[in-house]
Amino acid sequence: MTPIDNHSDDHHVLAIVGSGFAGVGAAIRLAHHHEGSVVIFERAASLGGVWRDNDYPGAACDVQSVLYSFSFAPSADWRTVFARQSEIRAYLERVARDHGLMPRLRTRCAVESITWDTARSRWILQTERGTSTADHVVLATGALADPAIPDIADLHTFSGPVFHSAQWDHSVDLTNRRVAVVGTGASAIQFVPQIQPLVSSLILFQRTAPWVMPRNDAPISRRTRAATRWIPGVQKLRRAKVFALRELKLAAFRHPRLMAIGEKEARAHLAHAVADPALRAKLTPDYRMGCKRILISDNYYPALAQPNVDVNTTGIARATSRGLIDTDGVEHSVDAIIFGTGFDTSRLPLTDVVTGPAGSTLSEHWGDSQRAYMGTSVAGFPNLYLMHGPNIGLGHTSVIMMLESQLRYIDAAMTLQDDRGATTVEPTVAAEDDFVRDVDDLTDGTVWTSGGCSSWYLDSTGRNSNLWPASIAGYRRRASVFRADDHLTRTAGGQS
To answer: Which residues does UniProt call coiled coil (predicted)?
Structure first.
């Protein structure tokens, strides 16, 4: 960990905020631009992003391991089709070490503000440990960084432990305890089956039933791992096969009627696991599959069918010192409350403290709907790049491939600046508007806007500002053909 000397000019070519996949990938893929003059700020005590924070029981990836990894750092060590949290975190740490990033990592160093210095054409980063400056900033905080805690009246009066799945309190022993789980997000789908056999009772407060498909997880045999490691082309072939199959699934998201096929399989999955018709009715979604995130699990439904589990769909009115009162006025006495309610996706972290040349923050600039050229750069905010920015999320496959395509675009933008001898680069307003218009056109008629649900994919204006609504191949083509005319460069003395 590099110490900060507040009496020196702590300046870097590139400052990266966040050390998950996006941050580590940026430091590696942009290395020829910063040539070692890079710093990675991390608010936590170690790198890892969501795969450090989400260490709840049963935490694992919902995308096949072979696809949820960098293309430039393949691994033959995955032991299951869907990697566990500990494996993914270890992989990310190994990649960071192999590329010499650990000395550039500043842990326990939260960034408090990022302000553009017009006079010196650089960003000023105020952190909890001092001030640094950088020519370029990559915000790699990710869209799933800040847990969403529902506003439950009188929650502070509850006498037992309360925590979110992304901040799991491992000091709390749930054995023979009465537990309330609030929410049925992707994390709840995973941890509920793990804690259900331990607890004396579990009440699950469900607002909206998710569509759940079979996970079909399995160990990867030693023979397959050996072939992947030693036989040329096997790794690429396995990756290409999974990639193609997942890209094919996009057709149902873009043409919602095709989702009826998946819905039939999901209903059969539910019927096989849950015999009680009343419980089955509670767990049956009333919207088109894909409108919200599709979840995968082989043990979620069987866990809910156990006698020590109750599914409550009436909603929560308020908390008491003993538990939670639902909207029917019934008090449910519990010993612990766990939130499986996902993350705050209404804005990207830190965008309310990133201040551009015009004096407004990125959040103020956006208003109620975030937007960016290629989901990555914003007109009026030079030399600033957003990893997992607006319209970079996915509903059908691995976001790691989107991040790598973003880095291809950032590389090209920084190269344009270097070639022109400029000090700054940013997209034009017209180019950003055109990209946003393309996204809106691609979203029109998809399941995300016509599926009959309310999801985090859409912002408060009803616009899709989170998902890329087309194929990864389509985004990759855009990222690989850099349009210089879509960008504005400036030198210290003017504009080019």
So the answer is: none
